[in-house]
Amino acid sequence: MSELLAAYHDNIRDWLPQMMLASLGTLKLTIVSFFAAVGLGLALSLARLSRHWLLRSAAISYVEIARGLPALVILYIVYFVPPQIGATWLILSSFSAAVIGLGLHGGAILSEVFRSGIEALHSGQKEAAYSLGMTPVTAMAYIILPQAARIVLPPVANYAIGLLKDTAVCALIAAPELMLRAKDLASSSFEPMAVFVLAAAFYFAMSYPLSLGVRYMEHRLNYRH
């Protein structure tokens, strides 16, 4: 313990600004990847509920494949494969590759969450909307999805918290985020324990307020309901 405190005493003024800046990179990566996953997941869930068998088959195939692969494998494919096959137009920065990789993986996960939330609603909701003259699109947008949002909020929020922590794997493709900076500091200072304990504190400081915010939203939605 004394060695750990000594390491912080000697290095904290150098580490803290760098870790704080890297945390902003983690938050940026989390937010962009989350919205990418939500958009893809919603599109896939609607495709799975479509009456067109081709759309359903394509969505089911994608979801099963993407859910069956670790996020790290998808990141490696997105980042390392295009240069290997000569597809220069597909070469991405580490940040862009991280967003796409996490979005592709997360979209498959969230598609099942959204589909379950939509199917949990009574079929009479859709029939009532149609009886009022609504089209399938307007019924989904104004009747089904707002009600399904209450159902899917907890799992989607839990996914967001998990995504924030999962961004750590993006250090393996040199994406600018907290774990990459922690690895660099640990290598340069030869104090891996002190650096990674500090990184853990930063991850907790970012994820815990998000958890509190989710609880508040759940309470508000339940109260209004």
If you had to describe this structure to a student in words, what would you say it looks like?
This protein is mainly alpha-helical. The protein has a single domain (2-224), classed as MetI-like (MetI-like fold), CATH 1.10.3720. 84% of the residues lie in helices and 0% in strands. It contains eight helices and no strands. The chain is flat, with a radius of gyration of 21 Å. The model has no long low-confidence stretch (mean pLDDT 88).
Topology diagram in text:
Blueprint (H helix, E strand, L loop, with lengths): L1 H47 L4 H15 L3 H15 L8 H26 L3 H9 L4 H31 L11 H12 L2 H33 L1
Helix pairs in contact: 1-2, 1-4, 1-7, 1-8, 2-4, 3-4, 4-6, 5-6, 6-8, 7-8
Task: Briefly characterize the structure.
By secondary structure, the chain is mainly alpha-helical. The chain is 84% helix and 0% strand. The longest helix is centred in the N-terminal third of the chain and has 47 residues, at 2-48.
Q: Which key features would you list for this structure?
A:
MetI-like fold, 225 residues, flat, mainly alpha
End-to-end gap: 50 Å
Largest sheet properties = none
Task: Give the structural class.
Answer: mainly alpha
What is the chain-wise order of helices and strands?
A: HHHHHHHH
For this structure, the CATH topology is MetI-like fold
What is the count of helical runs? 8
The outline comes out as: flat
Mean pLDDT, all residues: 88
Low-confidence stretches: none
Number of domains: 1
CATH superfamily: MetI-like
Write the CATH architecture name. Orthogonal Bundle
Query: Can you give the helix content as a percent range?
Result: over 70%
Compute the number of strand runs.
0
Please state roughly what percent of the residues sit in beta strands, choosing from under 5%, 5-15%, 15-25%, 25-35%, 35-45% or over 45%: under 5%
Computed CA radius of gyration, to the nearest angstrom: 21 Å
What is the level 1 CATH name? Mainly Alpha
